Amino acid sequence: QVQLQESGPGLVKPSETLSLTCTVSGGSVSSGGFYWSWIRQPAGKGLEWIGYASYSGTTNYIPSLKSRVTISVDTSKNQFSLRLSSVTAADTAMYYCARGNSRILSPWGQGTLVTVSS
Amino acid sequence: EIVMTQSPATLSVSPGERVTLSCRASQSVSSNLAWYQHKRGQPPRLLFYGASTRAAGVPARFSGSGSGTEFTLTISSLQSEDFAVYYCQQYNNWPRTFGQGTKVEIK
User: Fold this and answer.
1) Sheet hosting strand B70-75, strand order edge to edge
2) Burial B18-53 (b: 16+ CB within 10 A, else e)
3) Given pLDDT bands bounded at 50, 70 and 90, which one contains residue B96?
4) At the N or C end, where does chain B have fewer CB atoms within 10 A?
5) Ramachandran sector of residue A86 (left: φ over 0; alpha: ψ -120 to 50; beta: rest)
6) Omega before B44 cis (within 30°)?
7) What's the CA gap between B95 and A66, in Å, rounded?
8) For B13-30, what is the mean pLDDT?
9) Is the Cα torsion angle B57, B98, B67, A63 positive or negative in sign?
10) Which residue in B96, B97, B100, B102 has the most chain A C-beta atoms within 10 A of its own C-beta, making it the best mutation to test that interface?
């Protein structure tokens, strides 16, 4: 059974880069047909699918974040990562990683809270 | 961007009751609609895709229906473990978008 676990700093300063890693167990990020996604949810707000990447390098990002976001897959570590540059308080959220097929998401990680504050 | 609107925002229900949750899309998404269940302290869980196809392990008391712009998630007899927030998500267009969620709470 595939499981995912997010990790990374819980506090990031404004204008800096948010970096999170998702470690995959029970499966391989190199498995064909899967895309590896990041989703976020600010407190009291809805879910936002940030984007996804495949092990072969295919990526797709939400237009509102496209200029600041990078999702990449590291097959050697069986992980994938999220980088979001020039963060502001509006980027404070619970961040989830998930496996998907570019359409639906399953399974998800437990989520990690990231706060942007000086 | 397709806007997904869920109603009601909160539903207070007693165990054993039948529950109907609604999801509306701002434009047609065909049957490209998924439902997720999110319990406190747990990751969201996929319940349905294709509007009405149950994901693995989802109990038969859950059913999904609809197409185009109107969708429904029904729980035939609410169990204690079903108290959660339910989200719909369209995957007809990019960006994929979620509804704001319906919280099913104990009455």
Assistant:
1) B4-7, B19-25, B70-75, B62-67
2) ebebbbbbeeebebbbbbbbbeeeebbbbbbbbbbe
3) very high
4) C
5) left
6) no
7) 11
8) 97
9) negative
10) B96
Q: Which two tokens stand for residue B105?
A: 């709470």
**What letter would DSSP give residue A87?**
-
pLDDT at A32 over 90: no
CA distance A88 to A16: 8
CB pairs under 8 A between A and B: 52
The residues near A73 (Cβ < 8 Å, ≥ 6 apart) are A29, A36, A53, A54, A55, A79, A80
pLDDT, tens digit, 9 for 90 and up, residues A57-103: 999 999 999 999 999 999 999 999 999 999 999 999 999 999 999 89
Give the closest of A46, A107, A108 to B99, CB-based.
A46
The residue written with tokens 């609107």 in the block is B5
DSSP B55: P
pLDDT at B50 > cutoff 90: yes
Secondary structure of residue B41 in the 3-state scheme: coil
CB contact under 8 A, A109 and B43: yes
